[in-house]
Amino acid sequence: MSQITGKDAEPAEADKAQPKLHPISLYLKIWGLLFVLSTMSYLVDFFEVQGMLRWTLILIFMALKAGLIITIFMYVRWERLALKLVLFIPPLAIVVFISLMAIEGDYTLVNRLISFISV
Amino acid sequence: MSIDDKQEKAEAPIASDNWQGAVSDWGADKQVFNMPWGKLMMWLFLLSDTFVFSVFLVGYMNVRMSSMDSWPLTSEVFALTIAGHHIPLVLIAIMTFILITSSGTMAMAVNYAYRGDRRKTVMFMAATALLGASFVGMQAFEWSKLIIEEGVRPWGNPLGSAQFGATFFMITGFHGMHVTAGVIFLLVIARRVANGHYEGKGYHIVEITGLYWHFVDLVWVFIFALFYLW
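ok -> structure tokens follow
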């Protein structure tokens, strides 16, 4: 018997990763949470929170919202690890890029200040 | 190991989902991702789009950090006076709520599609498209206000740092383009769902459309936090 029987190895189109059906209430709950988180990040601006606290709060609310959208709405929570790795390993390069460009931005500013402001 | 054992292994349904499962997904003689190719292609497209938007936002970070002029106060630039009250950033807040709501309706459309309820699927997809269109409409209003009343241009503006205009039009323009494309995509697929085009093939296409739409919402989460609130 041949080792690879193409037909058997490939599941039928219909039963390919049919997602589990969740009750509609799940989406309403997540929607409510996203609403609350957006309101909270808007309030950070409304009450003019400044400095480190402002940036921390903005980033926390942003990460929570993004997490909810990716895990629940985009179904990543129920996907296999093989796909999660494809989705989350490449963006690590972006983290490196952000740090490089932050260093570069600081460097540019310092040089501009030196050449345009001091004697 | 007998031949029977070998065969049992080859035909084992799906390995458990841990690191060993991931290795066997890649290493076994079978297709790696157990999903329709369209869904995988959408994921790969979204991954590449993640890089596009990240590069825009990183560019924005870089010019904002190195700008010597003061950065315009976004909560004032995007404030509106409604019924005599001056409310900071209100238009952007409304746009955020609209996009989140559209993500919720889209998730429900996907769910109803897999339940086989065509009428509700079309209804929720149409609602999503309508919300998306209203988002683009408000963005058009925001742009015209900034261009005509405030005099903001991609190469400079009277409010402060010139880079504000450049990054604003670039980032929100690209995002608005994605929303517009999403509205068209939604309407096309909704029409085909209504016509019963997918009865034989299954409703994965609604999930794929949904992935795109949620991604557009996801990008807005980052733009809202990093451009409008920062």
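Residues 78-118 of chain A form one domain.
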